[in-house]
Design brief:
Layout lengths: L1 H23 L18 E6 L5 H17 L2 E6 L4 H13 L4 E4 L8 H9 L4 E4 L13 E4 L2 H15 L1 H5 L1 H4 L3 E7 L5 H14 L5 E8 L4 H14 L5 E4 L2 H13 L9 E6 L2 H8 L5 E4 L5 H12 L7 E3 L4 E3 L13
Parallel strand pairs: 1-2, 1-3, 3-4, 4-5, 5-11, 6-7, 6-8, 8-9, 9-10
Antiparallel strand pairs: 10-12
Helix pairs in contact: 1-3, 2-12, 3-4, 5-8, 9-10
This protein binds alpha-L-arabinofuranose.
């Protein structure tokens, strides 16, 4: 009986909440899953960054499907790339007393106050995909997502190996290996980690130089614009390290328009492993694709269930990720689903 009353109260809050947040932050419609399970009574507030890439759309779908499959009510808020919208959404989740908050912080900084409010309200917080920098680490229960430092290192190792001959000749030729970096969103943990891992590997190899590094905000359109710019500035670019596939695909378009051959005239290493990037790898237009796994929904929902039950969860959990090289048997790669 008490349980029923709680459930009715919760459902009422959710209806009001959904109406409110659709005005505040543009909530996405809750996707109906083919396998909607019996209601678990758990309500999770999920603050997503937006829909800037195929990766992001897949990640949203993964969380929505997993919630539906476990009978978890998901209150989904799309922040449309604005931190202020995320903070508003988190405050709404707190006001309507969801059981757990799961959120993907667009940038690392600026979360201390709102997370303190969540703690004061007794709502556990799960951080996913991107990390945060807070003075008090106990303001969130744990993190689950991908290892961006490793992704950057994998990119660096590929470049190191790919240019082995050229770098061994450097002492006589004095020919540098010129790299362009298409940086993700400024201040985001994934862009910071990828850049750091990449530099860590190339450090101690003076034959490499990053001649151009700018943020394309993980957007295909900006990847294209940046490529038009750097191709106009330099005619001796050896390689591109792109923080995501969207920007790589935009850059490939600009490279081809310039009459150059992506993957041959300019080596390309890219992160995400969406289907279009794998297709470009097969076509020889990309040389290495590093997976950033977006299908974290089932793990996120399992962790949310544990938090709702008052359990502790691991502080840090990375998901499995692969690297696809041009030299692999590419026929073995399964369809990516994003
Ligand atoms: O945070 C993960 C990154 O964000 C993905 O690499 C990118 O495609 C996305 O938009």
């Amino acid at each position: 009986m008490i349980h029923d009353k709680n459930r009715i109260r919760k459902l009422f809050r959710i209806i009001i909440f959904t109406i409110l947040t659709s005005c505040l932050v543009g909530c996405g419609a809750q996707k109906k899953s083919f396998s909607q399970a019996e209601d678990s009574g758990i309500i999770v507030g999920f603050s997503q960054i937006g829909a800037e890439s195929a990766w992001r759309t897949c990640n949203t779908r993964s969380v929505q499907d997993a919630a539906a499959e476990r009978g978890v009510q998901l209150v989904y808020a799309n922040a449309e790339q604005k931190q202020e919208n995320q903070i508003k959404a988190l405050r709404s989740f707190i006001a309507y007393q969801v059981d757990v908050i799961a959120f993907i912080p667009i940038v690392t900084d600026g979360w201390d106050n709102v997370l303190q409010e969540a703690r004061d309200a007794g709502i556990p917080v799960l951080v996913t995909d991107r990390k945060i920098d807070v003075a008090d680490q106990s303001l969130y229960a744990g993190f689950i997502g991908t290892d961006s430092l490793k992704e950057g290192r994998d990119a660096g190792l590929f470049i190191l190996n790919k240019f082995k001959d050229k770098r061994e000749r450097f002492a006589e030729t004095n020919e540098y290996i010129n790299i362009v970096e298409l940086f993700g969103t400024e201040g985001s943990s994934v862009a910071i980690g990828r850049a750091e891992g990449f530099r860590e590997v190339l450090k101690g190899h003076p034959e490499f130089r990053i001649v151009y590094s700018k943020s394309g905000d993980f957007l295909r359109s900006k990847g294209y614009e940046l490529a038009v710019e750097f191709l106009g500035m330099y005619d001796d670019i050896d390689a591109i390290f792109s923080h995501n596939d969207g920007m790589s695909l935009g850059a490939i378009e600009a490279i081809e328009e310039r009459g150059l051959r992506p993957g041959t005239d300019i080596v390309i290493v890219t992160i995400d492993a969406q289907q279009a990037a794998i297709d470009a790898l097969r076509a020889g237009k990309v040389n290495c694709v590093i997976e950033c796994n977006p299908k974290t929904g089932p793990e996120i929902i399992k962790l949310a269930e544990r938090l709702a039950a008052g359990e502790n969860i691991p502080r840090l959990q990375y998901v499995h990720e692969e690297v696809f090289y041009e030299t692999d048997d590419l026929s073995l790669i399964e369809p990516r689903g994003y």
